[in-house]
Known about the structure:
Blueprint: H1 17-27, E1 43-49, E2 57-61, E3 64-70, E4 74-75, E5 79-81, E6 84-93, E7 101-107, E8 112-119, E9 127-134, E10 143-151, E11 158-164, E12 176-179, E13 188-191, E14 194-201, E15 209-215, E16 221-228, E17 237-245
Parallel strand pairs: 1-8, 10-16
Antiparallel strand pairs: 1-4, 1-5, 2-3, 2-6, 6-7, 8-9, 10-13, 11-12, 11-14, 14-15, 16-17
Amino acid sequence: MALEKQAGGGLGTVKLAAFTICALLTAFGLAGCQTVQGFTPTALIRVIDASYIAPAANVYIENQLFAGNIGQGYVSNYGTVTPSAAATVKVAPVTGTTPAVSAAATLNASTQHTVFITDNGQSATQYVLTVLEDQQTAAASGHSAFRFLNQAPRTGAVDIYMVPSGSTVADSIPLVTNLAVGASTAYISFTSATVTMVITPTGLITPSYTSAALALTGGEVRTVVVVDSQLTSNPPVQALIADDVD
């Protein structure tokens, strides 16, 4: 059972008129968005929870609840926040004594970020909070751009393949090799096609995860988080696929 497109409110980038207005103003040689009367520039932010054993959490941006009672597998839509050079982002347990964690994040106008939640993998849990900067421009024509994060401690390091229709893992070269637990890649651009994403333990070709067919037509930007399955062993890992740019 894949966790693709599981989300509070569903996956998919929120298309904001504000960004379009900025582009139009620039194209016509007008001043930046900050000078437009009645317009307030915004930043975009979303939450991905890949915590392994940490309890359900609330996420606050500048002391305002942004996502409530979330757990592993949660991926939110992008929401708007006021730009800030040091916005306070906090993750706190819904109940219990797990310590809250917070970070100061630079959220500039017209940027996209992900509040990425993991944990320390210990019985005495502790949230680990990272604020990632997301790509906000479409991939080049005829190409797709994917970023990968490994949060599957039981599985360990993985290889990731994008297998074209009609091919097999054995016929393919991995897009990512030996991605360690806790590691992430930059955005990787590859030629768009209808592909199946296959995740294997590093050096093996026996799949730990196989996606449904992904019909990539060009321009897509995605973030993929590899997590251990909450099932016993089948499949060993699952993938959270979040839309950065459609």
